[in-house]
Amino acid sequence: MRSDGWHLTEDVHEFCDRAGEFLRSRPALHTTTLTTIEQVRTNGPGASVAQDPVFGRLEEGGEVTAAFFRLTPERLLSVTPLTYDQADGLAAHLVAVGQRPPGVSAVIDTATTFAEAWQRHTGSTSTFRTRIHLYRLGTLTPPQPVPAGRGRPVGEADHEHLMQWCREAAEFFGEDVTIDADTWAGTRFAEKTYTYWETPDGTPVSMAGVNPLVGGQVRVDPVYTPAHLRGHGYAAAATAEVTRAALAAGATDVVLYTDPNNPTSNALYQRLGYQLLTDWGVYVFTYPDDEPR
User: Fold this and answer.
1) In terms of C-beta distances under 8 Å and separation of at least 24 residues, what long-range contacts does 93-100 make, across chains too?
2) Do residue 119 and residue 229 come from a single domain?
3) How remote is the C-alpha of 281 from its chain's centroid?
4) What predicted TM-score, i.e. pTM, was given to this entire model?
5) Sheet-wide strand order for 150-153
6) Is the residue at 293 inside a domain?
7) At what angle are helices 12-24 and 31-43 packed, to 10 degrees?
8) Is residue 79 a contact partner of residue 89, using CB atoms and an 8 Å limit?
9) Which of 35, 145, 164, 225 has the fewest CB within 10 Å, making it most exposed?
10) For residue 223, what is the domain's CATH number?
11) φ, ψ (nearest 5 deg) of residue 279
12) How far is CA 284 from CA 101, 127, 203, 258, 293, in A?
């Protein structure tokens, strides 16, 4: 039996073997960890998405009760929900092994608790950067009325158009990413499958993407409609289409993230049957030796 406490590894397969059951026990809440770890596991060692990664699990009484990952030294620490004592213990352990994350991403209470613990142990200051809603599907309620047209899978012939829309979506969401034929495979957009909603004449007017089914959960992301085409119900139709397909494929949990400051998208997803599960939070850290002298 492993001793109680935090156990760190750079081996994603070891991490999956030990923490996989725990992560799958709450698939909606652990959506980011499940999909990210699966991406790293599938791409294999040395994948561009994970350079010098670290994965951690907390064992208590012979069971895994929490986990975290950090894919590169420049990426945020992503943590499952923690109690006060667990957060404090993780902060102490990471300091002891020389970790220095630039910030933390977790459910809002955990993010705040860990940021406070990190400040106590390192003397760093933490700045709250963003809050994100996490929704989970209750019962799918298709939009009424459904706009004229149909949903169809995005195929190879659509790749240039898809990349263009993903570039526009990334810009709209405030992401700093290069998306072209050379970089596509290394972006978060490449792992997804996409559906277009198209008008009766075959013109795409909206798209919705989904992450692969992992641990029973599917995450809808991104949903994008060009600005001049908004207001016609196309995004709702595309989202309903990929949600229905995810359920048909066996998903037990269908989730998505939203910007709390966008009442239009939040209302749209609620009308489709998505319910607020929790809020996510991000803090960034500034260390004493980062301060200008």
Assistant:
1) 93/5, 93/6, 93/8, 93/56, 95/121, 95/122, 97/8, 99/54, 99/70, 100/73, 100/287
2) no
3) 12
4) 0.92
5) 5-9, 54-60, 63-70, 77-79, 103-107, 274-286, 125-137, 253-258, 217-224, 204-210, 193-198, 150-153
6) no
7) 150
8) no
9) 145
10) 3.40.630.30
11) -105, 140
12) 9, 5, 42, 20, 20
Which residues, including other chains, have CB under 8 Å from residue 52's CB and lie 6 or more apart? 10, 72, 73
- The pLDDT score that the predictor gives to residue 49 is 57
* 3-state helix/strand/coil string of the chain: CCCCEEEEECCHHHHHHHHHHHHHCCCCCCHHHHHHHHHHHHHCCCCCCCCCCEEEEEEECCEEEEEEEECCCCCCEEECCCCHHHHHHHHHHHHHCCCCCCEEEEEHHHHHHHHHHHHHHHCCEEEEEEEEEEEEECCCCCCCCCCCCEEEECCHHHHHHHHHHHHHHHHHCCCCCCCCCCCHHHCCCCCCEEEEEECCCCCEEEEEEECCCECCEEEEEEEECCHHHCCCCHHHHHHHHHHHHHHHCCCCEEEEEECCCCHHHHHHHHHCCEEEEEEEEEEEEECHHHCCC
Structure tokens at 152: 């169809």
Q: Determine the structural domain holding residue 36 and report its residue range.
A: 5-131+280-288
Q: How many domains does the chain have?
A: 2
Contact between residue 238 and residue 230 where contact means Cβ atoms under 8 Å apart: no
User: What would the two tokens of residue 218 be?
Assistant: 């599917």
Chain-centroid distance of CA 88 in Å reads 24
Distance CA 211, CA 96 (A): 35
